[in-house]
Specification:
The chain has about 350 residues and is mainly alpha-helical. It is built from 13 helices and four strands. The strands form two sheets. A two-stranded antiparallel sheet has the order 1-2. A hairpin with a 7-residue loop joins strand 3 and strand 4. The two termini are about 45 Å apart.
């Protein structure tokens, strides 16, 4: 994620739903010869969540869970218990998630069953919990996300495109694809409202945020993560010196040894540099228009440069929308230029 953002309050309900799934898994390994007693299991579930477990699809998933061997149930429980706490291990070089194995891999049965259980539960609750329609839904997540994040909540946290999530714009993305990572289908840190462009088939879609070459221990160190690790805190922007004037992202002072890899993975998913660079021509026109309104042509060199730098400073830190954000990147880069370079880029062209 590029922008630092906060979690919506309704995400807390997902933690309770994950507790519910954990209870089901714990019950399945209560003893070596444990058999399914559905009435006993229901009694262990919070009253308001019981309608979820009573759904025919979830009943079928639970029955399938109990058809596995005890060892397989233990494996499913261990994978769930480990992955649900992944936010505590984002800098752990020994930690890795549990993705589903290839269909032909016989060891994958526990994760296949877990995948169906977690994804079926998500499909039920995403439209609202059966008995508590106001406690969680995808639309509520979008509305609360926009409210709690203020200015940042009205733009896509990836590309900074204007997005009114409260009006149903954009989508709620599973950053780690839910069909690939069963446990994260329900994880509150894995659900992020983003724009349709970023989540489209030509961008992230169902791609794995972790590059294939980085899968395994320490894989979470290589990616920016929703709510947990934002690119804004680690990236330094420049503008290429050639005629293309492309935006270039490189590790900044807030980064670490993995920042370059995180930037590469973010670019692999979203192609931000190229998309942002397309806006440059409009921004250059905006700056020139501000210079014209300031009457800079009638000023002397020193006063003209002072006006130009004031314009740069006024625009250097905006995130109101994508155009203003890119304008801020460009202006921040320009402020590092010498007076002679600024004069050549703007003031001398006005005198021609």
């Amino acid at each position: 994620m590029f922008l630092p953002v906060k979690q919506p309050a309704c995400s807390d309900v997902l933690n309770r739903v994950m507790d519910m799934v954990q209870t089901i898994l714990d019950y399945s390994i209560k003893s070596l010869v444990q058999e399914l007693d559905f009435h006993e299991l229901i009694s262990l579930i919070d009253t308001d969540l019981r309608p979820i477990v009573k759904k025919s699809k979830i009943c079928k998933d639970i029955e399938e869970l109990f058809q596995m061997t005890y060892v397989e149930r233990v494996e499913a429980n261990a994978a769930f218990s480990s992955d649900r706490g992944y936010e505590e291990h984002i800098n752990d070089v020994s930690y890795k998630l549990h993705p589903r194995l290839a269909a032909e891999d016989k060891r994958g049965k526990p994760l296949e069953v877990l995948n169906r259980l977690c994804n079926d539960v998500y499909d039920i609750i995403k439209g609202g919990l059966p008995e508590h329609k106001d406690s969680f839904s995808v639309s509520m997540l979008q509305k609360e996300y926009e409210y709690i994040n203020g200015e940042n909540g009205r733009v896509c946290p990836i590309c900074v495109k204007e997005n009114l999530f409260s009006m149903g714009e954009g989508e709620v993305d599973h950053y780690f694809p839910r069909k690939k990572y069963p446990v994260l289908a329900l994880h509150p840190y894995n659900l992020l409202p983003i724009c349709r462009d970023c989540n489209g088939p030509r961008k992230k879609y169902t791609k794995n945020p972790v590059d294939t070459s980085d899968l395994g221990p320490g894989e979470l160190c290589t990616v920016f993560l929703p709510y947990l690790r934002s690119g804004r805190n680690e990236i330094e922007f420049c503008v290429s010196e050639d005629a293309s004037r492309d935006i270039v992202m490189k590790p900044g002072p807030g980064g670490d040894q993995y920042t370059e890899k995180r930037i590469a993975n973010m670019e692999r998913l979203y192609d931000l540099g190229k998309r942002w660079s397309k806006i440059f021509s409009y921004i250059y026109e905006d700056i020139n228009e501000e210079l014209n309104h300031s009457g800079v042509k009638a000023k002397g060199r020193e006063e003209g440069l002072a006006i130009l730098r004031r314009i740069m400073e006024a625009n250097a830190h905006s995130t109101k929308d994508r155009k203003d954000f890119i304008k801020g990147v460009y202006c921040s880069w320009l402020l590092k230029k010498s007076d002679e370079e600024l004069e050549e880029l703007f003031l001398e062209k006005k005198d021609r």
